[in-house]
Design goal:
With 115 residues, the protein is an alpha+beta fold. The chain has one domain: HIT family, subunit A. Helix content is 21%, strand content 22%. It has 2 helices and 5 strands. Strand 1 and strand 2 form a beta hairpin. The longest helix has 17 residues. It binds guanosine-5'-monophosphate and zinc ion. Guanosine-5'-monophosphate binds next to strand 2.
């Protein structure tokens, strides 16, 4: 499976740097974000190095479907009952900082809620 030796998320996939993993299978790794924006904030990443959504092809459709199907299951496993958000940032203007595709999944009481 393709990896980029300079990519921090490829290093997490390889176990070269630690992460609080919540799920791993043949296609993805899921771990807690190091700087959470919500009470529960995990990142679903493909094991293969795909830099961003701009690199995705039809061959990745099943992988993206898998990531979407996992999100609600993992939120339920992590005790999130009131709903969650899924976010993929793409490119500089999309706020992407790590150029290895990742889906943020954020749940728990909303810190962004008014009042
Ligand atoms: P982006 O802005 O690229 O969509 O989000 C990157 C996310 O990765 C950020 O929320 C950031 O906190 C998280 N992150 C960056 N480096 C690490 C790391 O080494 N470990 C973990 N667990 N999360 C990281
Ligand atoms: Zn990578």
């Amino acid at each position: 499976m393709s990896a980029d030796p300079n990519c921090i998320f490829c290093k997490i996939v390889a176990g070269q740097i630690p992460a609080k993993k919540v799920h791993e299978d043949d296609r993805v790794v899921v771990f807690h974000d190091i700087a959470p924006w919500a009470p529960v904030h995990v990142l679903i990443i493909p094991k293969q190095h795909i830099a961003s959504m701009t690199e995705v092809t039809d061959a990745d459709a099943a992988l993206l479907g898998h990531m979407n199907v996992l999100a609600p299951r993992l939120m339920a496993q992590l005790g999130v009952t009131g709903g969650f958000r899924q976010v993929i940032n793409t490119g500089r203007d999309g706020g992407q900082e790590v150029f290895h595709l990742h889906m943020h999944v954020m749940g728990g009481p909303r810190p962004w809620a008014k009042g």
